[in-house]
Amino acid sequence: MRAEPCKPEARRGSSTHDDHPAGGCAGQAERRYEARIAEGLADIDAAAWDALVDARPGANPFLRHAFLHALHASGSAGDDSGWSPRYLTLWAAEPGGERLAAAMPLYAKAHSYGEYVFDWAWADAYQRHGLRYYPKWLSAVPFTPVQGSRLLAADEHAARQLLAHALALAEQSGMSSLHVLFPTPQEAGWMAEAGMMLRQGVQFHWTNPGYADFEAFLATLSQKKRKNIRAERRRVAEAGIGFRHLRGAEISDEDWRFFHRCYRQTYREHHSSPYLNLDFFRRIGASMPGNLLLVVAERAGSPIASALLVYDDAPAISTLYGRYWGALEHHPCLHFEASYYQPLEFCIAHGIRTFEGGAQGEHKMARGFLPVATQSAHWLAHPAFADAVERFLAQERQGIGAYLDELNERNPFART
């Protein structure tokens, strides 16, 4: 399946294919790209893909060929699960061959599960008016609410051309909409310039200015927060629970099977189905071991809980990402210890600057995390619905602004 270059009429909410994009690069307009749709990454060279990831600000392990390919090859994100890969790629002709010039992780989505930017109300409004919202176009990393580049390209010119092709594809396909989740701030700006509507969200991140140890971090918190954290950690220790940190090749197949049991148990307790299967975890364990940390909780010599975290490529580790957690035994405060305090100790010990604890969760603030605004970009084909959503987003932005102000007033750190 191919998406050929096109130049549709410019109007609000539609794409514009401009060889001289606003803020673009002079002298690069002569470049021409061939646009193609790839139904997965099996036929795209991993080194070529990862070179595009490394070229853009906002690179992270979730954008790498190994992680995305594991999602599709394991069946966790594919046609059967409602995540149909339709990666948009741009190719440049060169002497003796062609070069992958830009790429966007793009899906034809049959639902809105696993996105963490909620548009269920939009889909419901379409249905009530006799219109189809699904399938829709979605650019994101499945099940991963982490900010990063969605316009993978070696330079701004190619990135902007990729965006123009994506909007043209969305318009010509007859599908309801295009949504880009958690792009970098720079890319969000380009999307707004191209006519997409921006939406804000809130996450909670922890930052490390260079703490000497966990106690040094605690000393920066208010007395009440400091006392509560010590009490939570004491309850876990008094239950006789200890922890092992396993990195990369230290994680055995037995560890993966145990972790997957814990992961499934979490979903079972919430009366839902897990997104990821054991094959996926085995695949990333084999293909990207240098990015993985498994925290295992043990009591009386037996594992009882675990948390999986992902971090940037060593040696320049700058961010730790909290991902999945589960327990086979329930103990007070065990979740906080395994998913927050143990990872924070890991960050401090290795000089990691940022810990992203995942989506939502005001409870993270009591543990030293601060609110951070995130963005997504949206294009809707139906003019009336686009107008309605634009009005909704304007009101929502005011609410998000007030919410951030309120959260910042509840800053957990000691006043100086």
From TrEMBL:
PANTHER family named in the record: ACYL-COA
Protein name: GNAT family N-acetyltransferase
Organism the protein comes from: Cupriavidus malaysiensis
A family per Pfam: FemAB_like
Region (Disordered): 1-26
Biased composition range(s): Basic and acidic residues: 1-21
